[in-house]
Protein backbone atom coordinates (compact mmCIF):
# COMPACT_ATOMS: atom_id res chain seq x y z
CA UNK A 1 0.00 0.00 0.00
CA UNK A 2 1.47 3.33 -1.07
CA UNK A 3 1.47 6.03 1.61
CA UNK A 4 -1.47 8.44 1.43
CA UNK A 5 -2.40 11.74 3.10
CA UNK A 6 -6.04 12.72 3.57
CA UNK A 7 -6.69 16.39 4.36
CA UNK A 8 -9.45 16.61 6.96
CA UNK A 9 -8.91 20.25 7.95
CA UNK A 10 -6.45 23.09 7.61
CA UNK A 11 -7.30 23.18 3.88
CA UNK A 12 -9.68 25.78 2.52
CA UNK A 13 -9.55 27.27 6.01
CA UNK A 14 -6.81 27.92 8.55
CA UNK A 15 -8.33 25.94 11.44
CA UNK A 16 -9.30 22.33 12.14
CA UNK A 17 -5.88 20.93 11.29
CA UNK A 18 -6.11 17.15 10.82
CA UNK A 19 -4.10 15.08 8.33
CA UNK A 20 -4.62 11.33 8.19
CA UNK A 21 -1.46 9.51 7.05
CA UNK A 22 -1.83 5.86 5.99
CA UNK A 23 0.97 3.40 5.18
CA UNK A 24 1.58 -0.34 5.48
CA UNK A 25 -1.82 -0.97 7.02
CA UNK A 26 -1.30 1.66 9.74
CA UNK A 27 -2.77 5.11 10.11
CA UNK A 28 -1.94 8.12 12.22
CA UNK A 29 -3.12 11.69 12.57
CA UNK A 30 -0.89 14.70 12.20
CA UNK A 31 -2.74 17.17 14.43
CA UNK A 32 -6.24 16.89 15.86
CA UNK A 33 -7.68 20.39 15.79
CA UNK A 34 -11.04 22.11 16.12
CA UNK A 35 -12.60 24.22 13.40
CA UNK A 36 -13.00 27.79 14.62
CA UNK A 37 -14.45 31.02 13.26
CA UNK A 38 -17.73 31.36 11.37
CA UNK A 39 -20.67 29.12 12.31
CA UNK A 40 -20.49 26.89 9.18
CA UNK A 41 -16.94 26.02 10.18
CA UNK A 42 -17.79 25.42 13.84
CA UNK A 43 -20.64 23.11 12.85
CA UNK A 44 -18.11 20.80 11.18
CA UNK A 45 -16.85 19.89 14.65
CA UNK A 46 -20.18 18.12 15.26
CA UNK A 47 -19.98 15.99 12.11
CA UNK A 48 -19.15 12.33 12.37
CA UNK A 49 -15.43 11.96 11.57
CA UNK A 50 -14.72 10.50 8.10
CA UNK A 51 -12.55 7.79 9.69
CA UNK A 52 -12.86 5.35 12.56
CA UNK A 53 -11.13 6.86 15.64
CA UNK A 54 -10.64 3.34 17.02
CA UNK A 55 -8.50 2.46 14.00
CA UNK A 56 -6.09 5.39 14.40
CA UNK A 57 -2.81 4.10 15.80
CA UNK A 58 -1.35 7.40 17.05
CA UNK A 59 -1.61 11.20 16.97
CA UNK A 60 1.32 13.60 16.52
CA UNK A 61 0.81 17.17 17.70
CA UNK A 62 2.82 20.20 16.67
CA UNK A 63 1.55 22.43 19.50
CA UNK A 64 -1.25 23.05 22.01
CA UNK A 65 -3.48 25.64 20.30
CA UNK A 66 -7.09 24.45 20.01
CA UNK A 67 -7.13 24.55 16.20
CA UNK A 68 -4.45 21.85 16.37
CA UNK A 69 -5.40 19.91 19.53
CA UNK A 70 -9.00 20.71 20.45
CA UNK A 71 -10.58 17.70 18.74
CA UNK A 72 -8.65 15.27 20.96
CA UNK A 73 -11.43 14.93 23.59
CA UNK A 74 -13.92 14.03 20.85
CA UNK A 75 -11.48 11.56 19.33
CA UNK A 76 -11.00 9.88 22.72
CA UNK A 77 -14.73 9.84 23.42
CA UNK A 78 -15.23 8.00 20.12
CA UNK A 79 -12.80 5.23 20.97
CA UNK A 80 -9.25 6.41 20.25
CA UNK A 81 -6.84 4.85 22.74
CA UNK A 82 -3.44 5.24 21.05
CA UNK A 83 -0.52 7.44 22.10
CA UNK A 84 -0.49 11.19 21.53
CA UNK A 85 3.08 12.27 20.80
CA UNK A 86 4.16 15.82 21.62
CA UNK A 87 6.93 17.89 23.18
CA UNK A 88 7.18 18.28 26.99
CA UNK A 89 6.00 21.91 26.90
CA UNK A 90 2.98 20.96 24.78
CA UNK A 91 2.13 18.22 27.29
CA UNK A 92 2.27 20.84 30.05
CA UNK A 93 0.00 23.27 28.17
CA UNK A 94 -2.62 20.78 26.96
CA UNK A 95 -4.31 20.16 30.34
CA UNK A 96 -4.69 23.93 30.82
CA UNK A 97 -5.99 24.58 27.30
CA UNK A 98 -8.38 21.62 27.06
CA UNK A 99 -9.78 21.93 30.59
CA UNK A 100 -10.37 25.63 30.05
CA UNK A 101 -12.13 24.96 26.73
CA UNK A 102 -14.37 22.36 28.39
CA UNK A 103 -15.21 24.78 31.21
CA UNK A 104 -16.12 27.57 28.77
CA UNK A 105 -18.38 25.22 26.79
CA UNK A 106 -20.05 24.02 29.98
CA UNK A 107 -20.72 27.62 31.04
CA UNK A 108 -22.04 28.55 27.59
CA UNK A 109 -24.44 25.60 27.44
CA UNK A 110 -25.63 26.17 31.01
CA UNK A 111 -26.39 29.80 30.18
CA UNK A 112 -28.11 28.87 26.90
CA UNK A 113 -30.33 26.32 28.64
CA UNK A 114 -31.07 28.70 31.52
CA UNK A 115 -32.13 31.59 29.29
CA UNK A 116 -33.59 29.55 26.42
CA UNK A 117 -31.65 31.12 23.55
CA UNK A 118 -30.98 27.81 21.79
CA UNK A 119 -33.03 25.61 19.47
CA UNK A 120 -31.50 22.53 21.11
CA UNK A 121 -33.28 21.11 24.16
CA UNK A 122 -31.08 20.74 26.01
CA UNK A 123 -27.98 22.35 24.51
CA UNK A 124 -24.90 20.18 24.99
CA UNK A 125 -21.18 21.02 25.03
CA UNK A 126 -19.01 19.80 22.18
CA UNK A 127 -16.94 17.93 24.77
CA UNK A 128 -16.90 17.68 28.54
CA UNK A 129 -14.33 17.83 31.32
CA UNK A 130 -14.59 14.04 31.56
CA UNK A 131 -13.68 13.74 27.87
CA UNK A 132 -10.56 15.83 28.50
CA UNK A 133 -9.45 13.56 31.34
CA UNK A 134 -9.51 10.58 28.96
CA UNK A 135 -6.99 12.38 26.74
CA UNK A 136 -4.30 13.29 29.25
CA UNK A 137 -3.06 9.76 30.13
CA UNK A 138 -2.41 9.16 26.43
CA UNK A 139 0.25 11.88 26.15
CA UNK A 140 3.81 10.73 25.39
CA UNK A 141 6.55 13.35 25.40
CA UNK A 142 9.68 13.56 23.26
CA UNK A 143 12.49 16.10 23.30
CA UNK A 144 13.36 18.17 20.25
CA UNK A 145 15.67 16.16 17.99
CA UNK A 146 14.73 12.78 19.50
CA UNK A 147 13.91 10.16 16.86
CA UNK A 148 11.12 7.84 18.05
CA UNK A 149 9.00 5.05 16.53
CA UNK A 150 5.29 5.42 15.80
CA UNK A 151 2.98 2.45 15.17
CA UNK A 152 5.80 0.22 13.85
CA UNK A 153 5.61 1.98 10.47
CA UNK A 154 6.80 5.52 11.09
CA UNK A 155 9.66 7.30 12.81
CA UNK A 156 9.25 10.91 13.87
CA UNK A 157 11.35 13.77 15.14
CA UNK A 158 10.32 17.19 16.46
CA UNK A 159 12.14 20.36 15.41
CA UNK A 160 11.72 23.84 16.86
CA UNK A 161 9.01 25.93 15.18
CA UNK A 162 9.26 29.17 17.21
CA UNK A 163 5.47 29.66 17.34
CA UNK A 164 4.58 29.14 21.03
CA UNK A 165 6.21 27.26 23.89
CA UNK A 166 6.59 23.62 22.83
CA UNK A 167 5.68 24.22 19.18
CA UNK A 168 7.34 21.91 16.70
CA UNK A 169 7.78 20.93 13.10
CA UNK A 170 7.40 17.19 12.50
CA UNK A 171 9.89 15.17 10.47
CA UNK A 172 8.12 11.90 9.61
CA UNK A 173 9.86 8.90 8.06
CA UNK A 174 7.35 6.53 6.45
CA UNK A 175 8.29 2.89 5.91
CA UNK A 176 7.45 2.23 2.27
CA UNK A 177 9.19 0.98 -0.87
CA UNK A 178 10.85 3.35 -1.41
CA UNK A 179 10.80 5.08 1.96
CA UNK A 180 9.19 8.53 2.11
CA UNK A 181 10.23 11.43 4.29
CA UNK A 182 7.47 13.95 5.04
CA UNK A 183 8.19 17.22 6.84
CA UNK A 184 5.20 19.04 8.31
CA UNK A 185 5.51 22.72 9.23
CA UNK A 186 2.90 23.11 11.93
CA UNK A 187 2.54 26.81 12.78
CA UNK A 188 5.77 28.71 12.17
CA UNK A 189 7.10 31.58 14.24
CA UNK A 190 9.74 34.24 13.65
CA UNK A 191 13.36 34.57 14.54
CA UNK A 192 14.52 36.73 17.44
CA UNK A 193 11.49 36.35 19.74
CA UNK A 194 12.18 37.22 23.40
CA UNK A 195 11.27 33.89 25.08
CA UNK A 196 11.32 31.40 22.19
CA UNK A 197 14.23 29.78 20.46
CA UNK A 198 14.46 30.36 16.73
CA UNK A 199 12.78 27.97 14.27
CA UNK A 200 15.02 25.23 12.88
CA UNK A 201 15.44 24.57 9.18
CA UNK A 202 14.30 21.32 7.59
CA UNK A 203 17.25 19.95 5.63
CA UNK A 204 15.69 17.06 3.69
CA UNK A 205 12.17 16.05 2.62
CA UNK A 206 10.43 14.09 -0.13
CA UNK A 207 7.15 15.79 0.76
CA UNK A 208 6.89 19.21 2.43
CA UNK A 209 3.48 19.84 4.00
CA UNK A 210 2.94 23.52 4.84
CA UNK A 211 -0.35 24.87 6.16
CA UNK A 212 -2.20 27.29 3.89
CA UNK A 213 -1.64 30.11 6.39
CA UNK A 214 2.05 30.07 5.55
CA UNK A 215 2.26 28.59 2.07
CA UNK A 216 2.46 31.91 0.22
CA UNK A 217 3.98 34.19 2.81
CA UNK A 218 7.42 35.33 3.90
CA UNK A 219 7.69 36.83 7.38
CA UNK A 220 8.75 40.46 7.22
CA UNK A 221 11.76 41.45 9.28
CA UNK A 222 11.22 43.04 12.65
CA UNK A 223 11.40 46.85 12.69
CA UNK A 224 14.45 48.10 14.62
CA UNK A 225 12.31 49.24 17.55
CA UNK A 226 10.10 46.15 17.71
CA UNK A 227 11.40 44.98 21.08
CA UNK A 228 12.60 48.27 22.55
CA UNK A 229 10.63 49.40 25.60
CA UNK A 230 8.49 52.50 25.16
CA UNK A 231 9.58 55.79 26.69
CA UNK A 232 6.92 55.38 29.38
CA UNK A 233 8.26 51.92 30.28
CA UNK A 234 11.82 53.24 30.31
CA UNK A 235 10.82 56.02 32.70
CA UNK A 236 8.95 53.54 34.92
CA UNK A 237 11.93 51.18 34.96
CA UNK A 238 14.29 54.05 35.80
CA UNK A 239 12.02 55.22 38.63
CA UNK A 240 11.75 51.70 40.02
CA UNK A 241 15.53 51.24 39.85
CA UNK A 242 16.09 54.57 41.64
CA UNK A 243 13.56 53.64 44.33
CA UNK A 244 15.20 50.27 45.01
CA UNK A 245 18.66 51.85 45.17
CA UNK A 246 17.46 54.39 47.72
CA UNK A 247 15.78 51.69 49.82
CA UNK A 248 18.86 49.46 49.78
CA UNK A 249 21.26 52.28 50.67
CA UNK A 250 19.87 52.72 54.20
CA UNK A 251 19.98 55.90 56.31
CA UNK A 252 22.91 58.23 55.80
CA UNK A 253 25.02 59.34 58.76
Short description:
With 253 residues, the chain is an alpha/beta fold.
Explained architecture:
This protein is α/β, with parallel strands linked by helices. It is 27% helix and 19% strand. It has helices at 39-43, 66-69, 72-77, 88-115, 129-135, 231-249, and strands at residues 4-7, 19-23, 26-30, 58-60, 84-86, 139-141, 147-150, 154-160, 168-174, 180-184, 207-209. The longest helix has 28 residues, at 88-115. It is globular, with a radius of gyration of 22 Å. The termini are far apart. Residues 232-253 have low confidence and may be disordered.
Radius of gyration: 22 Å
User: What is the CATH architecture term?
Assistant: 4-Layer Sandwich
Q: SSE string, helix = H, strand = E?
A: EEEHEHHEHHEEEEEEH
CATH level-3 fold name: Metallo-beta-lactamase, Chain A
Query: How much of the polypeptide forms β-strand, as a percent range?
Result: 15-25%
Quickly count the domains.
1
Unreliable runs, pLDDT <50, ≥5 residues?
232-253
Number of helices: 6
By DSSP, the count of extended strands is 11
What would the average pLDDT be, to the nearest integer?
A: 86
Helix/strand-derived class?
A: alpha/beta
What is the general shape?
globular
Record the strand order, biggest sheet: 1-2-3-4-5-6
CATH superfamily: Ribonuclease Z/Hydroxyacylglutathione hydrolase-like
The major pleated sheet works out as: 6 strands, mixed
Span between termini: 87 Å
Share of helix among residues?
Answer: 25-40%
The CATH C-level class name? Alpha Beta
